[in-house]
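Here is a protein:
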Amino acid sequence: MSHAIWLAQVKEDIIEPDLAIIDPHHHLWDYPESRYLLDELLLDTGSGHRIEKTVFVECGAMYRAAGDPQAGTQNMQPVGEVEFVQGVAAMSASGQYGLTRVASGIVGHANLTLGRGVKPVLQALMDASPNRFRGIRHGAGWHASPAIRNSHSHPTQSLMLDATFREGFAVLGELGLSFDAFFYHHQLGEFADLARAFPDVTIILDHFGGPLGIGPYANQQNAVFSAWRNSVAELTDCQNVYVKLGGINMKVNGYEWHKRALPPTSDELVDATGQYYEHCIKTFGVGRCMFESNFPVDGESCSYAVLWNAFKKMSSGLNMSDRQSLFYDTAAKVYRL
């Protein structure tokens, strides 16, 4: 059975189809085993919810061909990804592909371990997309367990505490760029230290800070949530930190939706993961939180339509102004859309 057929086994009526949404986190790529380009994304965004704008987040796709290491041109390879997405965004902006304006904001990658030497790379990224580029992500996900794969940027242990990394991070503030942060939940203390050190940089915490559910954390969901809740409290007073609510249905999160005969319903997603959403909204407020799809990665576990139904169910007890913040306004503010 193909993955698309597996997902299609669970269909739901779309809840509140006219609710305006910005999806602030998705990827685009073309790998030998997986293609997720404009057509595939539009099948998801066009599945019933009113997705008006999106934000692309780096994933190592379409880098420039390898250059001369002696000349430092390999550091410019990630610029190719932003050039690629800028083209996709221009296609979408033509209006020929429907309502959704894909990649209204673009988050690229630059290697912050270059220290201040990262500035020419950041300037090249800005030049590649003058009207859409907003900042970068440099994944810091690291764990000693061989069962847990580190971030695709190949970080070292305690990257966020590294002095040279922080030299590069300071350049983000100088250029008015934001930082998307991805790591695993046991690193939340290091992240809080980074956020406090750079209060003038807008920082977006991706995927709740990566609560793990595999390797040494398998079948430890209650303990992981408790540890995560205690650690995330350190961020409460970091007014420069915003939280993306989503990206928790990946294989690394350990719910094992992908192993089931049927994918989850929105009610099952709410029951299994709702405590993370509820805690973040209560702790940080709607003005610092935004729902995200993290597609196609979360698409390993559930369909796009079902996922956004779950978000709408999780927020159903809030007033419309608060819900508008979660679905649209916070993302529009943070990514300047």
Remarks:
- Residues 3-334 form a domain with the TIM Barrel fold (CATH 3.20.20.140).
- The CA atoms of residues 142 and 156 lie 7 Å apart.
- The mean pLDDT is 96.
